[in-house]
Task: inverse folding
């Protein structure tokens, strides 16, 4: 079960809340980027960035010089992962909505210092984008590692919201002669585009050919 | 041209910065949801939500009771819109990246009080999800309007980042026998799913049948 804190308990649309850790993991595992909220000079900044999950820990990374990562370490952070699954078309403007799955994770971020955990975190971030990729590419050099900050965020305090299904209109609006329903949004892979500098004779590996 | 302020000038990957207002408009107009960063009890909160643009103003909305909107009015906000266009597969773990278009807008949010501007903002938010929809659905009632807060955010302070194209590897890595290139991510509409309660004989209107 997800923990309940004032900021993880929904005040509205309570029926959208999911409270199983498995739901949180599913939303995170299905994503490729998150939106990281940090404080910089007292104001919120929302940065799209990669992430990876190992158990109950989320890993983020960035350049050692990034002000956003300094902000992340100096205050609480909020990481949000959102999947937009469809547009919900109601008979009234007011009841328009979207179908989505989203997770919000709150907490202090921890700078990862242990070399083993740093590598594990970076591996998880790369594998989130392209599972199977880490073992076939050149691993990070000492210099590259020195230029990279790795952050860890516990999944302890988190909320998950899911909306699915048709619109919910006011009862008296169901008779209106207006089409209502859902337009699903689909995400798919296009054909891999080889680097123009790719050496001849290197095929696309199987782990980059599957469909999501 | 976009304005330059300390938080809109990129410190790294400067070649990804776009500085034309047309680039900002293009990123916003191509999106359907944003991630809104606000301060709630001194900590950042990142909320996925709809938006609409009219000229140089972004409109957001929510329930009058939402703590996130109270937070938005009590501090600066940051609105980020991100399109993930592909995964960039390099020969080294370090140079993995993503192709994307993103916009970040900063500023104080203003609560819209004028009834005409409120309706215009709500219309823009609905039309962002489904252009052509506003004129065919029941408009908001007085009661629905009273339950809705509309916020406006000037596009004055904003930054736009775009990454596209193949990976950029270290020169000595180009000889590695590793496939490199881009896996494009495509977003498309699925077939419209009629509300199970849809009255017979109402076809899907043309504005909900086009492909994006």
Result:
């Amino acid at each position: 079960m997800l923990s309940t804190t004032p900021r993880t308990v929904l005040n509205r649309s309570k029926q959208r809340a999911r409270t199983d850790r498995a739901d949180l993991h599913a939303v995170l595992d299905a994503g490729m980027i998150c939106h990281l909220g940090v404080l910089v000079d007292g104001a919120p900044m929302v940065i799209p960035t990669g992430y990876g999950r190992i158990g109950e820990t989320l890993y983020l990374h960035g350049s050692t010089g990034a002000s956003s990562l300094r902000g992340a370490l100096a205050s609480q952070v909020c990481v949000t992962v959102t999947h937009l699954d469809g547009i919900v078309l109601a008979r009234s403007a007011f009841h328009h909505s979207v179908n989505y799955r989203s997770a919000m994770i709150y907490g202090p971020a921890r700078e990862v210092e242990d070399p083993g955990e740093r590598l594990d975190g970076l591996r998880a971030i790369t594998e989130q984008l392209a599972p199977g990729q880490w073992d076939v590419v050149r691993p990070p050099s000492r210099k590259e590692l020195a230029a990279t900050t790795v952050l860890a965020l516990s999944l302890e305090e988190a909320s998950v919201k899911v909306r699915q299904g048709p619109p919910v209109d006011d009862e008296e609006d169901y008779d209106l002669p207006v089409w209502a329903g859902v337009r699903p949004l689909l995400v798919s892979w296009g054909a891999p585009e080889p680097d123009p500098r790719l050496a001849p004779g290197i095929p696309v590996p199987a782990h980059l050919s599957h469909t999501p």
Chain B has a mean pLDDT of 94. Chain B touches chain A through 95 residues (CB under 8 Å). The helical segments of chain B are 21-29, 67-74, 115-129, 142-146.
